[in-house]
Design goal:
about 190 residues, alpha+beta, 6-stranded antiparallel β-sheet, 5-stranded antiparallel β-sheet, 2 helices, about 25% helix, rod-shaped
Length: about 190
């Protein structure tokens, strides 16, 4: 009799386990069915995630001849846009605005042609100068580039100013450039 009760108890325990597994399987099947019914939501989330990673711009100054010197620093508007994925660079203002929080890579190049004036620019993050590029062409052609990686908050701005009393030279060869891209979002 004890063996029958023990066997019966074991069977009830096993049956309860089977019912529990069956209930869990049904929940998983319902969740999978719901996901299949709502693929646009999943696709939209993936698209949003992908769009955040597609931020890149590449520009050139787009002016022929000497530019400057001026008595004050002047924000440079790089009007020739090669790439502006994510539309974060504004060619009217010359300002890049971070659309998402992340780590970005930027590059800036300036060119000077034989002149008595120095060539120079300042690279800004918001209102802070992060670096300056300058050189004196002194009868030669001079080209200087700098790169930097920055952690930006959404809405932070990056731009370049021609340094007061300095000048650059450009022509159809697009010597003066400004570009950047999102390395990864944070």
């Amino acid at each position: 009799m004890k063996a029958t009760v023990a066997t019966l108890a074991l069977l009830v325990y096993v049956w309860a386990g089977i019912l529990q597994l069956k209930a869990e399987d049904e929940v998983q099947l319902e969740e999978a069915a719901q996901m299949q019914q709502d693929p646009p939501l999943t696709e939209e989330l993936e698209k949003t995630h992908d769009d955040q990673r597609k931020i890149a711009f590449s520009t050139a100054f787009g002016t022929d001849g000497f530019y400057g010197p001026f008595t004050t620093d002047i924000t440079m508007t790089f009007k020739k846009v090669f790439t502006n994925n994510g539309n974060a660079y504004n060619p009217v203002t010359g300002v890049f605005t971070a659309p998402v929080k992340g780590v970005y890579h930027f590059t800036a190049t300036i060119f000077g042609k034989y002149s008595e004036h120095w060539m120079g620019m300042r690279f800004f993050h918001n209102e802070n100068v992060l670096f300056t590029i300058s050189d004196h062409p002194n009868g030669n052609h001079v080209i200087v580039s700098r790169d930097i990686n920055l952690s930006l908050e959404k809405g932070d701005v990056v731009f370049i100013k021609l340094t007061a009393n300095h000048q650059i030279f450009d022509d159809g060869n697009n010597f003066n450039t400004f570009g950047g891209f999102l390395i990864f979002p944070l």
